[in-house]
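Blinded run. Sample ID left blank on purpose so nobody reads anything into the name before looking at the predicted structure. Input follows.
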Amino acid sequence: MILTSLSNPTVRHLVRMRDNRARRREGRVLVDGWRETQRALESGLVPLGVYTTEDDVDDDREAVLRRGGDAVRYVSPAVMEKIGYGQSARGVVAEFQTPSWSLDELSPPGDALILVLDGIEKPGNVGAAFRCADAAGADAVLLTPAHCDRFNPNAIRSSLGTVFSVPSAVAEESQARTWLAARGVHVYAARVESSRPIWESKFVGPTAFVIGSEARGLEDRWESDDELSVTGIHLPMRGRADSLNASVSAAVLLYEAQRQRGS
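Blinded prediction complete.
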């Protein structure tokens, strides 16, 4: 049976889940696109529904339909357009329960390479940073404060689905600091005002890079205390701009760490 009615309760529910507050309140994640849905499934998420048209074609389609099993439902092009995110449908919309991935579930290696995104509000920047973390082989991404939303549809799209493949957790800054300190992680805070360029630091042990928003930076957060050692570093800027996009900064720092580690 093909779902064709725009007033169907399932369609109305999915449209309602496009409101971020409603989605978070009901604990749902909507994933658009075959590749992104495949990565969500590979992470162990169980679909509540997988919605697609009968004639869509994509390399990941069969794998998703096979994994989706009884959750797969076929819809008309009009319904797909209604429930999809953005200006154009991307072949599939999948609904999942929001995973409860937390700090306690992370188990990075002893020489962990971790990215901390502090106060980055734009979902596109969050997603792009996850994509960089995935590409550079980071072991985990932490997001502070705890209300950050790594499962915003734009974050999922910008990450190419890597919000599901890179281990991650959201937490308050104090919780993240305690977690990092307990694992002997040395923290490097990216600060425009720091006098220490990244080339003067060694990132070969357990390392975390903290990156703040482009608008406010880290301000007075992420300083050393009795619990945690934090070193301020900066990326040398040769032109007129005084900062880089958060995801670009993340990529430079993570790849420099991997270069030093011989990876």
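Unblinding after everyone has recorded impressions. The mean pLDDT is 93.
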